[in-house]
Design brief:
2 copies of one chain form a homodimer. Chain A is mainly α and 207 residues long. The first copy, chain A, is built from 10 helices and no strands. In chain A, helix 4 crosses helix 7 and helix 5 runs parallel beside helix 8. Chain A starts with 10 loop residues before the first helix and ends in a 5-residue tail after the last helix. The interface between A and B is medium-sized, with 30 and 30 residues. Chain A binds a DNA duplex (30 and 30 nucleotides) through helix 1, helix 2 and helix 3.
Chain lengths: 207, 207
DNA sequence: CAGAAATACGAGTATTAACTCGCATTTGTC
DNA sequence: GACAAATGCGAGTTAATACTCGTATTTCTG
């Protein structure tokens, strides 16, 4: 069980937490997840294991903090587009969706350093569950957005579309980040092509 | 380092190997990867740890066997479609691609039991490398197929398309397998919509 | 059937890494 | 400066588990 960490009472504590999290993140970028030991994190952060355990009840809690930072970066983007007024026609929706996809892509780019964390996360059932719950939320936001655009769209199809948009985006942008910028940009365009085709096949909007 | 396993000289040995592999596969389907210990596999397979280590030099080798069985299931499908003569027009290509996608989807369905293996694989650098090498091969096969259809298609774009088709298919079918049959079928259709749109945007073929 | 080769066994070993705990040091308060 | 509270320390404990090795059993060969 991943408990919440102890609340720090002095200011230096917050810095410690930050140093621990940063050290863990950097280590995941440098080496294998397997080498991410609590002792190593403490050493890299320039403190002792004992101190580390004052802020995090266990190793998973450190990963949890990283994962939540990653997940939190996406929420506002989805929420913003889902809250926009209904577009009048396909062109309007398409413009929004295109902008949305590019914003999501840029969130990936900005959080590049957290990417190995996602991989590490897969090894932990608890963290997987948290990510899955988060995804469910995003999917429902997407679904609501699509149903706002086309009120005729059945809820189950809207959910499926939300899921496919989320998952294909996730995998494509993850891969894209490992390539050079030219390919990265091309992949964004490709994702837009794919997802727009998918949505156009299901959403009925005037041209 | 994952060495090749010792070659069995008696017939019962092959059965042992099969029992070990099956036990490991079943365990991954039942519980967390974390609980997959060599002792537990041996017990489930009805033999001793000592015997297990006679056929597999280490734990990773067991996973490797599972992973290779998974990967091997896909090769013939790609190879078959890539070797077909050039389609005359988009309709011909589209028909092939649609059939191809459905066959790939059915390979996923048939190898459902190996799915948790892929997840477990992510924890092992060596196995990840093997899968990545395999993927590269598939991607090149796809790329060759697309360039056969449209010889004008630049090699780098062909590779990118191959990669996107592979990766989006992989993630979508993996998710699809966790849903009921209705959703599964719908997702296959959706993947076809997405990938055809992508290819149509880049391949120049007469209608 | 006898001897050898292959295989099966599983208690024991070695390693690794998460986590503790008693003591040292720093910080806050008067 | 004196006391207490909070924080920092890291050698040591503990648990888990991959893998070994000396011995028992089975199979093969003549």
């Amino acid at each position: 069980m991943i408990e919440a960490r102890k609340k720090p009472r002095q200011q230096r504590s917050q810095e410690m937490v930050e140093r621990i999290v940063t050290a863990a993140r950097d280590m995941l970028n440098e080496q294998e997840f397997k080498g991410l030991t609590t002792n190593a994190i403490a050493q890299k952060a320039g403190l002792s294991v004992g101190s580390l355990y004052q802020y995090f009840p266990n190793k998973e809690a450190i990963l949890l903090e990283l994962v939540q930072r990653w997940l939190a970066a996406f929420r506002p983007v989805s929420a913003f587009y889902a809250a926009k007024p209904r577009p009048e026609n396909w062109t309007g929706f398409s413009r929004d969706f295109c902008a949305f996809t590019r914003e999501i892509a840029s969130v990936y780019a900005q959080n590049r350093a957290l990417l190995p964390t996602l991989e590490a996360m897969q090894s932990h059932p608890e963290l997987r569950r948290i990510a899955k719950d988060h995804d469910r939320g995003i999917i429902e936001t997407h679904a609501a957005w699509f149903r706002n655009a086309d009120p005729q769209l059945p809820a189950d199809i809207a959910s499926r579309l939300g899921m496919l948009v989320l998952e294909t985006g996730n995998i494509c942008f993850t891969i894209a980040l490992m390539r050079d910028d030219t390919v990265y940009d091309a992949i964004i365009d490709d994702v837009i092509i794919m997802n727009e085709a998918l949505l156009r096949a299901h959403l009925r909007l005037p041209e």
